[in-house]
Amino acid sequence: MIISNRTFIVSGGISGLGLATAKAIVAQGARVALLDRNEDLGREVSSSQFEPASARFYCVDVTDADDIERVVGEASRWAADAGYPLGGCVCAAGVAFASTTLDSSGDPASIDTFKSVVDINLIGSYALATFVASSLAHQPPLESEPDHERGAIVLVSSVAGLEGQKGQAAYGASKGGVASLVLPLARDLARWGIRVNAIAPGVFETPMAGPMPNRVKQKLVSQLEFPQRFGQPEEFADVVLALFRNGMLNGTVIRLDGATRMGKI
Questions:
Q1: Which neighbouring-strand residues pair with 244?
Q2: Given 58, 84, 126, 171, which residue is catalytic?
């Protein structure tokens, strides 16, 4: 797919992997709709990190399907009015919460917290992908695309969804669910010329990793084969661009982890 002169929606687009991805997309001559629930920070990032015509911020709660539908509709109209038709989305909004299934007294962890993580990471990603796919299906395929492709969707899984560590039941389940969404979504949307892929990052330098104690960071790095360091958000963004560009990449989950195979802690 040709990235330039298209519009892409990026949830979690004002920090970490999402922000790096949004910047990489704009650098290719496209526009981005930045989605996040932090309105003050979102408007500040949008105005300070991007030219006014290249990015627009939308405040949204990804656990509210009606809110997502509203925002996708607004972003699609912004794209159409600017002559930059919608090209797809990156579902990068996510949260992590570490808690063992039972605490030291043998009492269960909060079910509400588990549900909240799944609602944001899994159901929120599915809802955004669905509404974006619907918008793409209602716009004509571009003649400039060799396969008449309408667009592409990139989900964000995690190595924790494949090898969840101790205390990652909620996060691991949510990200494993994201990985399991990829192939059925790709098959469902094939008739519309829409591709679906996911990236499963390992340990990356993001705000989510910021609160980790140094001993935990060192333990994680020690489990990488090469390179033995945290990944950079720009390296994640490079893979997103490749997933958009390469039409034969469909229905797959790409590990981006320095050959990490996570231990239990």
A1: none
A2: 171
- Asked whether the bond before 201 is cis by omega within 30 degrees of 0, the reply is no
Is 171 an active-site residue?
Answer: yes
- Give the pLDDT confidence of 171-189 residue by residue, as tens digits: 999 999 999 999 999 999 9
Distances (CA, A) of 94 to 29, 105, 178, 231: 27, 29, 11, 17
CA distance 41 to 44: 5
User: 87-131 pLDDT, tens per residue?
Assistant: 999 999 999 988 999 999 999 999 999 999 999 999 999 999 999
Identify the CATH assignment for 7-256 out of 3.30.1480.10, 3.40.50.720, 3.30.1330.10, 3.90.1230.10: 3.40.50.720
Q: Give φ, ψ of 63 to 5 degrees.
A: -90, 0
